[in-house]
Design goal:
The protein has about 210 residues and is mainly β. The protein is built from 1 helix and 26 strands. The strands form 4 sheets. The chain has a 9-stranded mixed sheet, with no helix packed on it. A 7-stranded parallel sheet has the order 2-5-8-11-14-17-20, with no helix packed on it. Strand 24 and strand 25 form a beta hairpin. It is globular and about 60 Å long.
């Protein structure tokens, strides 16, 4: 069973996975789908039809506007915003109030394990890659590659991070294409401006069993 605080506003049409918790004053709109063991913090907003993977945390007062899609294990920091309108206007050129039919919402897509820091803004349409980290206060206006560490306004890549979230260190004093995580020891390889997990080293038993 999950948990919904008395002051939370959760639509009857929203779907919540097993163990998901919705805290005070949060709002989860119609047709939103949240996976298992998610946390939606105080005052957070999850828009209509937003899809959220298992084990995702949306911290206090974060705003996740439709049609955002969040993968498994995503972290959205306090007061972060995922926008959905490329050219926002309250009124049409003739001065009439815009309705839901007068604009086309575009979403932010965040892949597995990625983190968006406090008060960061992701300007849709944009994709945040797997295990990337967006620094607090950054404004993301372009797609972010896997494992990228992004900061600034507009955000730019200032390094790489591993699955543990720690900045990676380049081998051989910056001359190598290999990066190591100081926390886990995991290795990554950079090629053409992209980072991927390095292939595991063969074990002794594998070497012994190899034939020419």
């Amino acid at each position: 069973m999950g948990f919904i605080a008395e002051t939370a506003d959760v639509s009857e049409r929203a779907r919540l996975g097993e163990g998901t918790k919705i805290w005070h004053l949060a709002q989860v709109r119609e047709d939103a789908v949240l996976g298992a063991d998610c946390i939606v913090g105080r005052g957070a907003y999850v828009g209509t039809g937003v899809r959220i993977g298992d084990n995702t945390k949306i911290q206090n007062y974060a705003l996740v506007y439709e049609p955002a899609e969040l993968g498994r294990g995503v972290f959205i920091g306090p007061a972060a915003v995922l926008t959905n309108d490329t050219y926002p206007r309250s009124i049409n050129p003739d001065g009439t109030l815009k309705s839901a039919h007068d604009w086309t919402p575009v979403g932010v897509t965040i892949a597995e394990g990625a983190s968006v820091g406090a008060r960061a803004v992701c300007v849709a349409p944009v994709r945040i890659g797997r295990w990337a980290t967006i620094a607090a206060g950054a404004v993301v206006t372009k797609d972010v590659p896997d494992f990228a560490l992004m900061a600034g306004v507009p955000a730019r890549r200032i390094g790489w991070v591993g699955k543990s979230g720690h900045p990676l260190r380049q081998e051989d004093g910056g001359q190598s294409d290999r990066w190591l995580c100081p926390e886990s020891g995991d290795a990554y390889t950079e090629e053409n401006g992209l980072l991927r997990e390095a292939a595991a080293e063969p074990t002794a038993s594998t070497e012994e069993g190899r034939t020419e």
